[in-house]
Design a protein that fits this description.
A two-stranded antiparallel ribbon has the order 1-2. Helix 3 packs antiparallel against helix 4 and helix 16 (278-290) packs antiparallel against helix 17 (310-319). It has helices spanning 2-8, 17-29, 33-45, 51-64, 68-82, 87-99, 103-115, 121-133, 137-150, 155-167, 171-185, 189-205, 209-222, 227-234, 247-267, 278-290, 310-319, 328-347, 359-382, and strands spanning 295-299, 305-309. The protein is mostly helical and 383 residues long.
Length: 383
């Protein structure tokens, strides 16, 4: 590019205009439209008989829009003086009229191109569009039908053909075309999901857990079939109650666990490995019992508060698999945990900031958590 810039700065009468064309092409690849326009004009200005240069310059002017469109039309007229009948230039001129909302003139030019055998997609599409927007809906249908036959996935063609049919004689098909256009306008689902996952995981890594959860929760509210989003939120919260340092964190954990479990129950799938949730839910239920609470506060990722009754929480716990279904080692750890709850009850301890579990029990519970996490991953793979 540097060598082209050096040549560009020399006297245009001593430099082949091809150089300017090459520089302009480079600018186009860089999406530097104004710079490309200047270079195309320098090349065109010393070689106005070159239809290719004229077309490239006009294309740039059209892309910049506004008063540049009229300049593009003027260049088309000049270039056509040297190249009468050139189809590319005539198509450019017709597009200029279309962009300037001079639909009748555009319709005339596209009609002439079509009559001469130009059946390219763009000629058919914009010829039909010009005709429709010029108030000739019925006459536009044939061209738009032909364009639709060449590309059924083009949104504008679907809309224009639907509009023309809706104004004339086939409203039933018009609605089908509108539905198809709406569907085509939707973003790619796989890419949307990739964006959501990537952004949320980056937020988690950046220590912005609340933002990540809010993003995932909003996406779940829009599509409640996405249990994986709830599971990703729930996964951030430990299943061991004594680890929580604040009532706010416990309320958020409770919402995440309860919401995920309620939605999972609705699927009717097996609850293999779901014993893992017993500890945190039992912990909160026991705490409510000791403090004579009939309801527990929950906080959603969007910071809205709600409540769940102790009875409802107990009914969720009762639906979870019994610890007897666990392997012996993991069952032992859960039994140790139950002993801790029993001691709390006997001692009348009613605070979530109660004395910690003994060292063996806590270590065992963490080991059990690790095991059940691996079980959960295996279950997800099998699904």
């Amino acid at each position: 590019m540097l060598q082209f810039n050096v040549l560009r700065d020399q006297d245009t009468t001593k430099v082949n205009p091809v150089i300017y064309r090459n520089i302009a092409d480079c600018y186009m690849k860089m999406n530097a439209i104004p710079a490309a326009t200047i270079c195309y004009f320098q090349a065109y200005n010393v070689n106005r008989e070159n239809a290719g240069l004229a077309s490239a310059l006009v294309n740039c002017l059209y892309r910049m829009g506004g008063p540049n469109i009229q300049d593009g039309l003027s260049i088309c007229d000049t270039a056509l003086f040297y190249n009468p009948g050139n189809h590319a230039l005539r198509r450019s001129k017709a597009m200029g009229f279309y962009m300037n909302k001079q639909y009748a003139q555009a319709d005339t030019l596209y009609g002439e191109l079509f009559a001469e055998g130009d059946t390219s997609f763009l000629t058919l599409k914009y010829g039909g569009a010009s005709r429709y927007l010029a108030g000739r809906a019925m006459d536009a249908i044939d061209l738009l039908e032909w364009a639709y036959g060449k590309d059924t996935t083009d949104v504008e063609t679907n809309l224009l053909l639907g509009a023309a049919l809706g104004k004339t004689y086939d409203r039933k098909r018009a609605f089908l075309l509108f539905d198809q256009a709406e569907k085509l306008m939707q973003p790619n689902e796989a890419l949307v999901n990739m964006l959501l996952t990537s952004r949320s995981e980056t937020l988690f890594k950046d220590g912005r857990q609340r933002e990540a959860e809010g993003l995932l929760y909003k996406a779940w509210l829009a599509n409640k079939d996405r249990l994986d989003l709830l599971f990703r939120i729930e996964r951030e919260y430990s299943n061991w109650g004594p680890e929580y340092k604040s009532a706010d964190d416990l309320a958020r954990a409770l919402f995440a666990k309860v919401t995920f479990l309620r939605e999972y129950f609705l699927t009717g799938k097996k609850l293999q490995g779901f014993q893992r949730y017993r500890s945190i839910l039992q912990y909160l239920y026991e705490d409510a019992f000791f403090t004579n609470k009939t309801e527990l506060v929950m906080i959603a990722p969007d910071n809205k508060k709600s409540k769940i009754s102790a009875e409802d929480l107990k009914s969720i716990i009762d639906r979870l698999p019994d610890i007897s279904q666990l392997p012996e080692v993991e069952r032992k750890y859960y039994q140790q945990m139950e002993e801790v709850f029993k001691k709390r009850k006997e001692n009348g301890i009613g605070s979530t900031k109660s004395e910690p579990l003994d060292e063996n029990s806590e270590a065992g519970m963490k080991a059990a958590q690790k095991y059940l996490d691996s079980q959960k991953k295996e279950e997800q793979k099998s699904e």
